[in-house]
Amino acid sequence: MTLTPAQLALLVDHTLLKPEATSAQVRALASEAQQLGVFAICVSPSLVAEVGDTGSVAKATVCGFPSGKHTSAVKAAEASQAVAEGATEVDMVIDLGRLLSGDVAAVRADIDAVRSAMPDAALLKVIIESAALDDEQVVAACEAAEQAGAQFVKTSTGFHPAGGASVHAVRLMAQTVGGRLGVKASGGIRTWSDAVALVEAGATRLGLSGTRAVLEGGSATSGGY
């Protein structure tokens, strides 16, 4: 696959979800996002209203993050408030324990509660923690997300000890949703080659915290950014 840094940037959610992140840091993130030409920024819910102007860059946030063990009502309220404060995309974390125990119906209901709390125009991504799942569970999580009306499935929070995105998981997720949903790869993507491999596997969005370094890695091999 031949991609320029500018083309890859358009697939990126430029992300800052550290607990210690400040208002000043997320405003700097928004400024850098516009310089880099990324698709979106992704910040914690408490900072959505403090981001300021992002120009054409979308505002994304998270809910039920990072454990997914919040009640559905809390996740739904968090998503609803975030959209009211300016977020256009919400990345929610499933209840991983429910999925691992085989209660896919509960996972689907959890996603549906969040989707129902958001306006139709807002986009919902569902974080499944793919590194903690076997293939059958990855497929089940993706199917639940689609059935509940989500627009994306996403590999990882980046906080789970099992790890982040893998080429195998992204390929399986892409095959499962068959182009009907987007696939966001996130967690541990630190180099240009990592990013391109995941796009080749089927990722249509990338969650990056070290965006500039990744894009500059491509500049060295693709003729400049």
Automatic annotation (TrEMBL):
Enzyme class name: lyase
GO molecular function list: deoxyribose-phosphate aldolase activity
Keyword Ion transport: no
Biological process according to GO: 2-deoxyribose 1-phosphate catabolic process; carbohydrate catabolic process; deoxyribonucleotide catabolic process
Active-site residues annotated for this sequence: 91, 154, 184
Compartment(s) of residence: Cytoplasm
Catalyzed reaction equations: 2-deoxy-D-ribose 5-phosphate = D-glyceraldehyde 3-phosphate + acetaldehyde
Keyword terms: Cytoplasm, Lyase, Schiff base
Primary localization: cytoplasm
TM segment ranges: none
Domain of life: Bacteria
InterPro entries membership: Aldolase_TIM, DeoC, DeoC/FbaB/LacD_aldolase, DeoC_typeI
GO CC annotations, alphabetized: cytoplasm
Pfam families: DeoC (PF01791)
Pathway: Carbohydrate degradation; 2-deoxy-D-ribose 1-phosphate degradation; D-glyceraldehyde 3-phosphate and acetaldehyde from 2-deoxy-alpha-D-ribose 1-phosphate: step 2/2
E.C. number(s) listed in UniProt: 4.1.2.4
PANTHER family per record: DEOXYRIBOSE-PHOSPHATE ALDOLASE
NCBIfam families: deoC
Functional summary from the UniProt entry: Catalyzes a reversible aldol reaction between acetaldehyde and D-glyceraldehyde 3-phosphate to generate 2-deoxy-D-ribose 5-phosphate.
Family: Belongs to the DeoC/FbaB aldolase family. DeoC type 1 subfamily.
Name of the protein in question: Deoxyribose-phosphate aldolase
Organism: Auraticoccus monumenti
Taxonomic lineage from the root: Bacteria, Bacillati, Actinomycetota, Actinomycetes, Propionibacteriales
